[in-house]
Write a structure and sequence with these properties.
246 residues, alpha/beta, seven-stranded parallel sheet, 7 helices
């Protein structure tokens, strides 16, 4: 049965979980941590806008996402990793990654400031479907979109929603997870460093991004639910590095 919490208990739990996620360095640390032993949802989880016709969760079957799919971040090495993929790979481009030449199937954008960026204003042509975060949906009616869901613990995946806090790459991974993907490959997603694949600035410092620990926790939860996440290059999320399938 789901757990019920008082508002005070919810706030205390959120603080504890946030601290654990921020301080852990490997996914294995989550399995043994008593704070994270039970991530069942509170019964008051809300269904935000779930009946809207453009909500991505009403279109998962139509998108025909296969059991093996790929998520392309805009990090260094993206171009080489795209070149290594098998023919007809199902790849989701995240934000600026759309500028890397490839026959993407989906393009996901979450940042509400995206309309200010050249890569969003003038994306390359292609036969890909656009999926925007809820903050952009009023500006682009008719486009598929996604929103988060309220949960008692921060950074907890929830059916019918895509949770933020782990970069757009983790939003794309959650989309694949809820679509039934069994193996997700990460490209161009080190979650550290100052630059994107095209030389533009990604962060102020060359170190690990703060979002890496949150992404690691999301990936851990999805692994418990049956989706394996692997990477084609070094990363800051404790994800195994593998060769692309042939």
């Amino acid at each position: 049965m789901p757990i019920k919490h008082t508002p005070t208990q919810l706030n205390a739990l959120r603080a504890k979980v946030t601290a654990v996620i921020s301080n852990a360095h490997t996914q294995a640390e989550y399995a043994d941590n008593p704070t994270l032993k039970d991530i069942r949802l509170d019964p008051r989880v809300a269904d935000f806008l779930h009946l809207a016709p453009e909500n991505i969760f009403r279109h998962l079957d139509r998108l025909r996402i296969p059991a093996v799919a790929y998520v392309a971040g805009a990090g260094p090495g993206l171009l080489e990793e795209l070149d290594s993929l098998p023919p007809n790979a199902y790849v989701v481009a995240c934000n600026r990654a759309i500028l890397a030449k490839y026959p993407y199937r989906l393009w996901m954008v979450f940042d509400k400031n995206a309309p200010k960026y050249p890569w969003f204003k003038n994306p390359p042509p292609g036969d890909y479907e656009r999926i925007y975060g809820n903050a952009l949906r009023k500006l682009y009616p008719g486009t598929l979109w996604f929103s988060s869901r309220r949960t008692p613990q921060p950074y907890t995946i929830a059916p019918g929603g895509i949770q933020g806090g782990g970069t757009i790459v983790c939003c794309a991974l959650q989309l694949l997870y809820w679509a039934g993907v069994k193996t997700a490959y990460l490209l161009g997603s080190p979650m550290r460093g100052r630059f994107h694949f095209d030389g533009s600035q990604a962060a102020e410092s060359p170190g690990i991004w703060k979002q890496a620990s949150r992404a690691r926790f999301y990936i851990y939860q999805m692994a418990q639910g049956g989706m394996s996440t692997v990477a084609l290059s070094e990363n800051s999320m404790d994800i195994p590095i593998v060769e692309p399938p042939r």
